[in-house]
């Protein structure tokens, strides 16, 4: 039996890793996962054919020193865990999912034993650093991360990126051979995001907007909240739902209070993965209001999968990936443009239907059953 191990500094299950692990298990691979654990979870258990090994560490966001401490602790403990597991199992392939990219070096011991190494780039780390800490692209931190990104990709046998063709070109410009890079777009699991299996709309008396997002400043939910006072002049039945949790939520709730729009806004907090498509299915329009260009956001594919018309920030990665036939664009951080795009869709059910249909058609060309084959092909080539 072919043995593989996936490592990611996330809790289990998380949408991307769980989907990928399930795909490998369904093809007959023995799959181990090394991830973070939360209070009350077991250090080790088998779930849906995947062996989960949890490391119990703090998980912080905020200052650069906190990030460095948390990541360093995970690097050391996951290296030791992976080395111990490798002695007994001799993995054919070890996949390390960013971020950061340099986590790929935890695989040094299994690599010496003959394991093939995949670096799965879920994030554009240099761009994310610039966005999170409001630094210049020429800042020493961004330059260091670009260097680490390059040597990490050189070290790995194969690189997978979920950030689309634009980021593939970025990697190629940094000297990574095109033949080494595979694009696997971060689309949802279509067994969960299946419009045929979801409940019908419960309440037709409201016009509902939904944003699926970790509640962080860079994801721009504040732009949507600032648009609410503009929208309710013409849409008194407006309801806005923010599906997700994060440390920026208190600031957003304060903004809603200051603007007097709390009654129009609902924060769901953390919801189970299976509940996300249910929330999206109840909306009229999906919103993707990101402030900074750090790649193609998952939420756009979530909306497309369920045929929801989508209004999104006109960021370079999105514009390069999707034309205006399946997305309505507005300038990032511009609540007036965002409101204008939403109002246009509110007033034209025909345009909503057309935009949703075209988004769904695009999604069909890159849905998980298509991307899954691209993902599995990387493994097949490495273990051949």
Structural features:
384 residues; alpha/beta; Rossmann fold; 2 domains; 19% strand
Structure report:
- The chain is of the alpha/beta class and 384 residues long.
- The chain folds into two domains: 3-187 and 368-383, 3-Layer(aba) Sandwich (Rossmann fold); 195-366, Glycogen Phosphorylase B (Rossmann fold), CATH 3.40.50.
- Helices cover 43% and strands 19% of the residues.
- The protein has helices spanning 15-26, 64-89, 108-112, 125-133, 140-155, 164-173, 221-231, 249-259, 276-281, 298-305, 316-321, 335-347, 349-366, 368-383; strands spanning 3-11, 30-36, 44-47, 50-55, 93-97, 116-121, 158-161, 181-183, 207-212, 238-243, 265-269, 285-288, 310-313, 328-330.
- The strands form two sheets. Strands 3-4-2-1-5-6-7-8 form an eight-stranded mixed sheet, sandwiched between helices. The chain has a six-stranded parallel sheet with strand order 11-10-9-12-13-14, with helices on both faces.
- It is globular.
């Amino acid at each position: 039996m072919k043995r593989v191990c996936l490592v990611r500094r996330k809790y289990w299950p998380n949408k991307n890793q769980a989907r990928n692990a399930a795909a490998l298990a369904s093809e007959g691979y023995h799959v181990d996962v090394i991830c973070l654990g939360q209070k009350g979870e077991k250090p080790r258990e088998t779930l849906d054919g995947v062996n989960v090994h949890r490391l119990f560490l703090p998980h912080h966001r905020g200052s650069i020193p906190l990030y460095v401490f948390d990541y360093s602790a995970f690097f050391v403990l996951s290296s030791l865990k992976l080395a111990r597991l490798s002695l007994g199992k001799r993995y054919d392939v070890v996949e390390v999912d960013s971020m950061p990219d340099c986590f790929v070096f935890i695989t040094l011991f299994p690599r010496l034993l003959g394991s093939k190494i995949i670096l799965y780039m879920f994030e554009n780390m240099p761009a994310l650093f610039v966005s999170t800490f409001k630094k210049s692209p020429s800042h020493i931190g961004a330059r260091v991360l670009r260097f680490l990104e390059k040597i990490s990709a050189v070290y790995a046998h194969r690189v997978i990126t979920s950030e689309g063709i634009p980021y593939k070109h970025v990697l190629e410009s940094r000297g990574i051979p095109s033949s080494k890079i595979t694009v696997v777009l971060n689309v949802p699991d279509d067994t969960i995001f299946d419009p045929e299996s979801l409940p019908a709309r419960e309440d037709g008396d409201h016009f509902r907007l939904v944003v699926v997002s970790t509640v962080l400043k860079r994801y721009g939910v504040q732009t949507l909240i600032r648009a609410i006072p503009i929208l309710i002049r013409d849409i008194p039945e407006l309801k806005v739902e923010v599906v997700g949790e994060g440390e920026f939520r208190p600031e957003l709730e304060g903004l809603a209070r200051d603007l007097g729009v709390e009654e129009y806004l609902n924060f769901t907090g953390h919801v189970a993965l299976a509940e996300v498509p249910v929330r999206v299915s109840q909306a009229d329009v999906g919103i993707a209001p990101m402030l900074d260009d750090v790649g193609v956001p998952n939420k756009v594919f979530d909306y497309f999968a369920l045929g929801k018309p989508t209004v999104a920030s006109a960021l370079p990665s999105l514009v390069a990936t999707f034309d205006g036939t399946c997305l309505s664009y507005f300038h990032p951080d511009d609540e007036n443009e965002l409101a204008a795009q939403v109002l246009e869709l509110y007033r034209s059910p025909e345009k909503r239907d057309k935009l949703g249909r075209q988004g769904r058609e695009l999604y069909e060309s890159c849905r998980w059953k298509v991307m899954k084959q691209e993902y599995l092909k990387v493994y097949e080539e490495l273990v051949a």
